[in-house]
Specification:
heterotetramer, A mainly alpha, B mainly alpha, C mainly alpha, D mainly alpha, C: mainly alpha, 0% strand, D: mainly alpha, two-stranded antiparallel ribbon, globular
Chain lengths: 119, 150, 91, 245
């Protein structure tokens, strides 16, 4: 069990990332594509936090425990993931605004139809 | 063997799998009900985790989920209310079961935790969770009849 | 390692739920229903972060991933659907 | 989706998957003991009496990166405001007020203050318990939109003047930069946490400039999310196009 456990979180992160990329590539609706991009981003959260985990560790927040009494996980990785989540949300909002503009100007949100319009 | 974390894992696994199955299959009205049940399944799990890991600070997560869960469900009920088909599947049995689960977990934690500020916070979360769950189910069972513009 | 394997078992449960919800979110082609699955995925991710001892990140994922992002997607879907239907009946 | 694109996707995906799995197998085992940066970050945070190490990393050791992240948030909201503004060929149609069931209305109006207080609590205790400016800001902004659920959009517009939120968004970003410049004026580095006393551990005023930066970020995220949602709801509910004959 523990040998699988050594690599499972990383493999789940890779699987979620590849699933998101598949959805992004084969999407027929731009709003659906933005959702798949959000899935891709959640893979990076899982990978980042899996790297920072320590067996038997607890969160490095000392409001309710005495510092140094218990091993703690890596806070730097958590700060990176926090930034990642907030920037991910703003990128999603901006992409959705662009999709609304495309729907208004071209009347469609299907990427294939958009490609024909350029011809 | 930490019993609290084991219980949390079972609640998370069972509730999560059921909610995932509910969210991915069936008519939209029932999917929103499944999303509502996600909150009332995962919030007790978070409370059990907070107790199992011995970190009262993790209770804030359950507090936030108890607050934002019903808000999300109301948003979906409001914006999905434009769906053509009108049949309202109201799963009252499931809702009461989820509310009972939440109540049982909160009572167990209050007993384990003992009186004090933490118990007040736990009871507040329990009230928010069960109240939000019932109101969201009430909204799904026809709260937004004639919502056209708004 | 007595208490240790419960910690790992719970991490495995959360990881499997995250993988399943990600697959469900991608397979679901309709954006409105995908927003529902993304909301569920946000909550399960927040639980995984709690299990990986990252409550701050879990709080952020709960607030952003399960409330804000699906709301934005639903509003966009409503705008695109209303724009398409606005020719017949004005709403 | 023609065959060629599917094949290309399958080939590229398989290659990428193989490389990623090979990389995962070389990563140090999950749950390892060696976290050099983490230990130093915890040590630096405790030296500055900040109980929440993540807040210390965000607002003290990497405050400059958080400034960059805040400007990304500000620029994205600015972009959305520009993209989603009302175009010439559009008019605003007042949405019909929605009939909402009585218990749902009461719940929304009851939960609004509770969620707002929770949001402010999460911001205020940012440098002590889990939470911080970002999470609290989003919760406070989402709480404000409970009024849209409880009543309808016109009620929300009356309570939430958009101009005020845009101004508070800009003021918060400037406050963050001014706090950084203050330490430059005092002779230390930009955004260095050496100006204010660190206070006693695990109290609201501990951590020097961390709580101030935390509050500035909280205010900025709250008003940014309100402005963002306002523009999206305007598009989804109010703005309609002229019917081209």
């Amino acid at each position: 069990m523990s040998t699988v456990m050594h690599v499972l979180p990383y493999l789940v992160a890779v699987y979620v990332f590849l699933t998101g990329c598949y959805g992004l590539a084969t999407s027929r609706n731009l709003v659906h594509a933005v959702g798949c991009l959000a899935v891709c981003q959640s893979a990076t959260y899982v990978l980042l936090l899996a790297v920072g985990y320590r067996d038997g560790g607890t969160a490095p927040v000392f409001s309710d425990i005495r510092p140094g009494s218990r091993p703690v996980v890596d806070p730097v990785v958590q700060a990176l993931t926090l930034t990642d989540i907030v920037v991910g949300a703003t990128v999603t909002a901006l992409l959705l605004a662009l999709v609304l503009q495309i729907a208004k100007r071209h009347g469609t949100v299907d990427p294939d139809e958009l490609r024909e319009l350029r011809g | 063997m930490n019993g609290w974390i084991l219980a949390a894992g079972i609640v998370l696994g069972g509730g999560g799998a059921a909610a995932l199955w509910g969210v991915t299959t069936g008519p939209p009205a029932r999917r929103v009900i499944a999303q509502n049940l996600t909150t009332s399944a995962v919030c007790p799990a978070l409370l059990l985790f907070a107790q199992g890991y011995g970190r009262p600070a993790y209770v804030d997560l359950a507090l936030l989920l108890a607050l934002l869960g019903p808000v999300g469900t109301l948003v979906f009920a409001r914006l999905l209310s434009g769906e053509p088909e009108r049949e309202r599947t109201s799963a009252w049995g499931l809702t009461w079961a989820a509310a009972a689960l939440g109540a049982a977990v909160v009572v167990a934690l209050c007993v384990a935790g003992g009186p004090g500020r933490a118990m007040v916070k736990l009871l507040a979360i329990g009230v928010l969770l069960i109240g939000g769950n019932l109101i969201a189910s009430r909204a799904l069972a026809g709260g937004f009849q004639g919502v056209r513009g708004g | 390692m007595g208490g240790g394997d419960v910690y790992d078992a719970v991490i495995v449960v959360a990881l499997l739920l995250v993988a399943a919800s990600a697959t469900a979110a991608v397979v679901q082609r309709d954006p409105a229903r995908q927003a529902l699955v993304l909301s569920f995925s946000g909550v399960v991710l927040a639980t995984l972060f709690t299990v990986l001892q990252a409550p701050d990140v879990g709080l952020s994922q709960l607030a952003v991933g399960s409330a804000l992002t699906p709301l934005l997607i639903m509003l966009s879907v409503r705008k695109i659907r209303r724009r398409g239907r606005s020719k017949e009946d004005t709403r | 989706m023609n065959r060629l694109r599917l094949w290309l996707l399958a080939l590229g995906g398989a290659g990428l998957a193989a490389l990623l799995v090979a990389a995962c197998l070389d990563l140090p085992g999950f749950g390892g003991r060696r976290h050099p940066y983490g230990d130093r970050a915890v040590h630096a945070s405790l030296a500055r009496h900040t109980a929440n190490t993540i807040a210390s990393v965000n607002f003290d050791q990497r405050a400059y990166d958080t400034l960059g992240e805040m400007s990304i948030l500000f620029a994205a909201v600015l972009g959305c405001a520009v993209l989603l503004r009302q175009a010439r060929d559009e008019h605003r149609a007042r949405p019909r007020p929605a009939e909402v069931a009585r218990p749902v209305r009461r719940y929304a109006l009851l939960a609004l203050p509770v969620a707002l207080v929770t949001g402010l609590y999460v911001i205020a205790h940012g440098q002590l318990s889990p939470g911080g400016g970002f999470q609290g800001g989003v919760v406070a902004a989402t709480a404000l939109h409970l009024l849209y659920l409880g009543a309808d959009y016109s009620a929300l517009e009356r309570v939430r003047p958009l101009g005020v939120h845009e101004i508070s968004d800009a003021v918060a970003v400037c406050a963050y930069v001014v706090l950084g410049l203050a330490s430059v004026l005092a002779g230390t580095a930009f955004l260095a946490n050496t100006l204010l006393p660190y206070g006693t551990f695990n109290t609201l005023s501990s951590g020097g400039s961390v709580p101030l930066l935390n509050a500035a970020v909280g205010m900025e995220v709250a008003s940014a999310v309100v402005v963002l949602l306002a523009h999206f709801i305007d598009q989804a509910v109010e703005i309609e196009e002229e019917h081209r004959s």
